[in-house]
Amino acid sequence: MPVYTINRRQFIISASGYVLSIPFLPSLVRAANVAENIPPRFISLRTLYGQPPQIFYPGRPSTKLSDHIYFQSFQQGQTISPVLNSNFSSIAHKLSVLRGIDYSNNGHNDEQMLTDGLIREDDSETASSKWSNSLDEVLARSSVIYPSTPQQRILRLEPSTSVKYGPKRGYSFWNGIEQPYDRIMPDLFKKLFPKSNNTQAEEDLQKQKQLKAVDIAKDAYDKLKNSRKIGSTDKQRLEQYYDELNELENKINSVTAKSCNIPDSHTPVGNAFEAYDLGIDIIILALSCDMTRVISMSAPYFGALPGENGSSFHGISHWKYTGSALPDEGFGVEKLITPPGSDLENKFKRMFSWTGDTAAKLMTRMDSITESNGKTMLDNSLVYWGNEQGGASGHSNYSPPIVVGGTLNGRVKPGYWDFTRRPFIHYAGRDDIHGAAGTIPYTNFLTTLANLYGLNPSSYEQNGVKGFGYFDLGLRSSYTFRGDNNLRLTNAELYAPYTSTGTNRGKNVPGWVA
Known about the structure:
The protein is α/β, with parallel strands linked by helices and 514 residues long. It folds into 2 domains: 8-31 and 210-253, no CATH class; 41-205 and 289-505, Alkaline Phosphatase, subunit A, CATH 3.40.720. The strands form 4 sheets. A 10-stranded mixed sheet has the order 2-3-13-4-12-11-1-10-6-9. The chain has a two-stranded parallel ribbon with strand order 5-16. A two-stranded antiparallel sheet has the order 7-8. It has helices spanning 8-15, 24-31, 53-56, 135-140, 185-192, 197-208, 212-224, 232-253, 272-288, 310-317, 343-367, 442-452, 491-499, 502-505, and strands at 41-47, 63-66, 69-72, 95-99, 101-102, 155-160, 173-174, 177-178, 182-184, 294-298, 381-387, 402-405, 415-418, 425-427, 432-434, 440-441. The model is unreliable at 1-35, 121-128, 163-167, 208-213, 251-257 and 328-335 (pLDDT under 50). The radius of gyration is 26 Å and the shape is globular. The longest helix is centred in the C-terminal third of the chain and has 25 residues, at 343-367.
């Protein structure tokens, strides 16, 4: 017997006295698209100084999909690298690591994580410029993200213990103006979660747990179960439907961990690192209560042992390559900082791993929250952990580390995506080692994120430039590699597949979008 589907109005009419074809009922429950009730969320976390390839990346992905596109999946429980360490293991299979996507600006690229950093008056290399709108600000103003007015369009935070430690430059921009960040976490906590909000927040959460289609179906069941018009076979089907209905309802009402219960107090903040933890607590509460769907967090402080903080870290981040010859042993054998196991490498592991742990805490907390579609908050979101620059030797614009947790409910394919040409670039002027030269402009990565959230290009394209911003070829030096002149390419040649036409500027990152 075929299974039919009907719309809500037809279902109500049937429940009011018409003969009801029972077999559609289980389908109706299974077709209830609870995923539509899951808000689209974007969370970004920015850290500084890039990541040394030696301790950040695993070996080159094993599967070659095409020229300069390599891929491999991660397994749950896997330790990916010394930085993407065991703290990420439970969510390793939900991570995307993207390598070979290049900035166009050199130097400290604090502002560039969610924008190209530039607005061009025209398409020339010499036109005047100013900051362009950042992705988080575009999302915060989008009716796609917020069909109705939210309590907080965007939450920007840079956790600290005092304003004396900041501010650093933010990375959220609108109409050329840097947007303000909250830095004192106890003050932000009080502002967002006054005690009087508790009761209303819990009521709002309970409303979110209600599935209207289920309520309608229950009402229909009550009206039909004693009807003399329904035969014994249909009554059995109705009972089967009711069992499925109860199972679904119990599943919805048993959603765990997503609690809007606001604590009466918070843990005191004694240093910047405790401030990070409170910042993560605030993020989880704000997302759980659907107070906001767009969050940008800056985390500029380092520290794993006493004295290892931002002030002492900057100097050693400019390590030099002092060997007699570059150790060009191919991808995955990148002995660039110092020999493995050395004191300096171990120090870098402590510092960069500590920063990574902040990202891991946020992502694993989100992954512990099951939502009404049976997936976790992390599954249903994108959490982008980015850096201001590429490798930690020079202020590189090559391959800034990109880690994305979650899939936005299955819209991206997690794993290790490598789009590079060579494992590193040597800058002889200072004996700096820059990160691997990529093949994809960073603006195409931002365009991809915008497309994943269903944004209309008119909401982010500016000054007639296609895609999310302008990739300035003139701000980059030509691609070179010491000892291999055959790899000398102009920037126009290197990035032509993504910059030569307006259509190319709007391309997605290949393969990653599911």
